[in-house]
UniProtKB/TrEMBL annotation:
Function: Allosteric enzyme that catalyzes the rate-limiting step in glycogen catabolism, the phosphorolytic cleavage of glycogen to produce glucose-1-phosphate, and plays a central role in maintaining cellular and organismal glucose homeostasis. Phosphorylase is an important allosteric enzyme in carbohydrate metabolism. Enzymes from different sources differ in their regulatory mechanisms and in their natural substrates. However, all known phosphorylases share catalytic and structural properties.
Entry-linked PROSITE patterns: PHOSPHORYLASE
EC number, UniProt record: 2.4.1.1
UniProt xrefs under InterPro entries: Glycg_phsphrylas (IPR011833), Glyco_trans_35 (IPR000811), Pyridoxal_P_attach_site (IPR035090)
Official protein name in the record: Alpha-1,4 glucan phosphorylase
CDD domains tied to this protein: GT35_Glycogen_Phosphorylase
Protein family membership: Belongs to the glycogen phosphorylase family.
Cellular component GO terms, alphabetical: cytoplasm
Residues recorded with modification N6-(pyridoxal phosphate)lysine: K664
Length: 819
């Protein structure tokens, strides 16, 4: 391995000829195929295996260096990782994309067609999982020692089809043809216990009986960009520890023979089982415990290979809880130290409380997981004991002279005194972590002032802010090659690893020649997306129209129904005045609703119903189109984002923790229409108020309105336009051959459902802002300048900056370079 201009070159041949031979070797030796019989899928597998060879070289060098230096490592715990397609990203990170293109051209192949063959690794619900993937990319790029841990779901979230306007879920069987990226490590399998009871006849409580489950690790290697470091994402798959009962099977006990196997394998079957049922809640708790227990045993195994004294554990191990889902890790690590390593309570707590850091990703109280005490006691009886003791010490240590002590005790207690009692997992995460952070400036302040205010009173120094970021390697370099090439042409090629270099583009916002090139890039991206959606879904998009984009998880607080009401308003205006002078606009909406979230699924139905009516109405469809893009994920985002003109970030102020879609779209030159919520506030500060469209109530105004008594029904009854639009939506005109009642839930939520996210309160401000968007877009030169300034001003929102802040201010990590 040699270094040249900061780029590490390994002995593996990276010439087009060497890459070509490696692909052909894998085609023959790994797949038993010849070029004349190979399918495009075979070529993808062979190309991915070639790429993996290069990654493995770097991984082995990284492992040797980290082991030799006995480094402090980050262990990142997340239930979600939305990796997407890896081949394109990995070729960019390795610096061999162009060589691979040439090698494939020499074989008569199109690399873009090969990219399309790769299944998406969609082990996430949305922003949380994609953020985790961006963070892994940045950790390797910045050369920090890190392991990611999660679950190897047999099925991803789900594949979303839209049938008659309804979301229909089907399994996302992403591993069915094999995955060339994964390395199975059965030697490092872990056995964990569930259920059982406590044996009190010993000197100390002993957890006995129950079921044992085997956790088998699957490793994904994560290379850094322009970096010699490759870190690991380790995902656990559940297996049965019980041998197959052949005797029972042969005597006819078929179900008896496979029952244990089915139970064990169900644990890692599906991301987020529906928790509407008791069985679903139980499985979800088991999933969380299974993954953290396997991971903690793996961490301790690795630690004891390199160190002899557990007293050194906090100086070599930092465990980061990515949201509340892995919070049971605090009780589990206590159990391991107490029961398996025979440490005292005080020593165990000293070690545990110094090695955990916790990021909160939501301001929605209902998203802070709580488990019923009876469920917890049945599944994890020893952990409930430990949680009770942690809680006792927490409450006993609250100062006697503190104001409203009894109220504070009720608020911070790990146990909520309801019927049945509930275990508060967020409180456990805060109590057991040395650092708690929010993910935007506003979010972190609201954590301190509202959601976790009682804990802030007790532990003010624990609270921090690290605003989220996105990896520019995927969200600009890979997804928008036209814009990337233009930027490189002007400011050089250093920006993908130092995104704040984009600041050098600001003077070009007034340069006519650059503006023309930038506009051409955007137009080509819009042409490409139009052709793609026409081919895939038969959508008809006018590339000259405004592409107005809202792509994110479908949820009431993200307010896709506010967007829908504005679309209805625009439709009404066009019907009333066919000569209305507006620029043609295409609304593109995409996202998945949780399978058990009926109202979110009804919002999808309403969008499709209104879209169908508008798109087939010749009176308006030259100026207005509405499309819902199915099965939103990393791949579709990478196609839509470069083509977007307008970015809809319209969540209720004070509800969105950060958002990262707002960053991706602004980086690619879309102007934000948004509330003062999440990272929108920091984007406003970065781009300037002239280059963003801010509207609506602020968080403090929402709070006051909620406290004083908000009545959406009064708005409905007193506002003629809002009443007309809601009555129109439920009139049956958009229901086609179905009863009008199919859209009632959306209307009901906004009137008699109390409009919990203040859609009606913000409607007129939103509508007025959209008029400003239309007027400003007509001045193309001004709009292009604003778009350029958005791209130029987003450098601070790199995930590299986020990780650098975590490493310096929270994790106390140092880079480690292979020798």
């Amino acid at each position: 391995m040699t270094s040249r201009n900061g780029f590490w070159r390994f002995a593996t041949d990276t010439s087009p000829e060497g890459i070509r031979e490696s692909i052909l070797s894998h085609l023959r030796l790994s797949l038993a195929r010849s070029p004349d019989t190979a399918t495009t899928f075979d070529w993808w597998i062979s190309t991915a295996m070639m790429c993996q060879d290069h990654i493995v070289d770097r991984f082995l060098a990284t492992y040797r260096a980290q082991k030799a230096e006995k480094v402090k490592r980050l262990y990142f715990f997340s239930l979600e990782y939305f990796l997407g397609r890896l081949l394109h990203q990995n070729l960019i990170s390795l610096g061999i994309l162009e060589q691979t293109k040439k090698a494939l051209i020499g074989l008569g192949l199109d690399i873009d067609q090969i990219f399309e063959e790769e299944p998406q690794i969609g082990l996430g619900n949305g922003g949380l999982g994609r953020l985790a993937a961006c963070f892994l990319d940045s950790l390797s790029t910045l050369r920090y020692p890190a392991f990611g841990y999660g679950l190897h779901y047999e099925f991803g979230l789900f594949h979303q089809d839209i049938i008659n306007g309804y979301q229909v879920e089907r399994p996302d069987d992403w591993t069915r043809f094999g995955v060339p990226w994964e390395i199975i490590r059965p030697r490092y399998s872990q056995v964990i216990r569930l259920y059982g009871n406590i044996d009190w006849n010993k000197q100390k409580p002993v957890w006995v009986g129950g079921k044992e489950i085997l956790g088998v690790p699957y490793d994904y290697l994560i290379p850094g960009y322009n970096s010699p470091v490759v870190n690991v994402l380790r995902l656990w798959r559940s297996k049965s520890t019980v041998e197959f009962d052949l005797e029972a099977f042969n005597r006819g006990g078929y179900f008896e023979a496979v029952a244990e196997k089915n139970f064990s394998e169900s644990i890692s079957k599906v991301l987020y089982p529906n928790d509407k049922t008791e069985i679903g809640r139980e499985l979800r708790l088991i999933q969380q415990y299974f993954f953290v227990s396997c991971s903690l045993h793996d961490i301790i195994r690795r630690f004891l290979k390199e160190h002899s004294n557990l007293d050194d554990f906090p100086s070599k191990v930092v465990i980061h809880l990515n949201d509340t889902h892995p919070a049971i890790a605090i009780a589990e690590l206590m159990r391991i130290f107490l029961d398996e390593h025979n440490l005292s309570w005080s020593k165990s707590w000293e070690l545990v409380s110094q090695c955990f850091a916790y990021t909160n990703h939501t301001l929605m109280p209902e998203a802070l997981e709580k488990w019923s005490v009876p469920l917890f006691e049945r599944v994890l009886p020893r952990h409930l004991q430990i949680i009770y003791e942690i809680n006792k010490q927490l409450l006993d240590n609250i100062p006697l002279n503190i104001q409203e002590r009894d109220k504070l005790i009720r608020q911070v207690s790990l146990i909520e005194e309801t019927q049945p009692k509930l275990v508060r997992m967020a409180n456990l995460a805060i109590c057991g972590s040395y650092s708690i952070n929010g993910v935007s400036a506003l979010h972190s302040e609201l954590l301190k002032k509202e959601l976790f205010h009682p804990f802030y009173i007790l532990y003010p120094k624990k609270f921090h802010n690290v605003t989220n970021g996105i990896t520019p390697r995927l969200w600009l370099l890979a997804s928008n090659p036209r814009l990337s090439n233009l930027i490189t042409e002007v400011i050089g090629d250093g920006w993908p690893s130092d995104l704040e270099q984009l600041d050098a583009l600001k003077p070009y916002a007034q340069d006519p020649a650059f503006k023309e090139k930038y506009n051409l890039v955007k137009q080509c991206n819009k042409d490409e997306l139009s052709n793609l959606l026409k081919k895939k879904y038969n959508f008809v998009l006018d590339p000259e129209a405004i592409f107005d984009v809202q792509i994110k998880r479908i949820h009431e607080y993200k307010r896709q129904h506010l967007n829908l009401l504005h679309i209805l308003s625009l439709y009404r205006r066009l019907l009333d005045n066919p000569n209305l002078d507006i620029h043609p606009r295409v609304f593109l909406i995409a996202g998945k609703a949780a399978p058990g979230y009926d109202l979110a699924k009804c919002i999808i139905k309403a969008i499709n119903a209104v879209g169908y009516k508008i798109n087939n109405d010749p009176r308006v469809n030259k100026k207005l189109r509405v499309y819902f893009v199915p099965n939103y994920g990393v791949w579709s985002a990478s196609k839509i984002i470069p083509a977007a003109d307008v970015s809809e970030q319209i969540s209720t102020a004070g509800k969105e923790a950060s958002g990262t879609g707002n960053m991706k779209l602004a980086l690619n030159g879309a102007l934000t229409v948004g509330t003062m919520d999440g990272a929108n506030i920091e984007i406003l500060e970065a781009v300037g108020e002239r280059n963003i469209f801010i509207f609506g109530l602020r968080a403090e105004e929402i709070r006051k309105l909620s406290t004083s008594g908000y009545s959406s029904r009064k708005i409905y009854e007193s506002d003629p336009e809002i009443k007309y639009l809601l009555d129109w939506l439920k009139s049956g005109e958009f229901s086609q051959n179905e009863p009008p009642s199919v859209l009632y839930p959306v209307v009901h939520s906004l009137i008699d459902g109390g409009d919990p996210f203040f859609v009606l309160a913000d409607f007129h401000a939103y509508k007025q802002t959209q008029l400003e968007v239309d007027q400003q877009y007509k001045d193309r030169q001004m709009w292009i300048s604003k778009a350029i300034l958005n791209t130029a001003s987003l450098g601070w929102f790199s995930s590299d900056r986020s990780i650098q802040q975590y490493a310096t201010n929270i994790w106390d990590l140092s880079p480690c370079l292979p020798k």
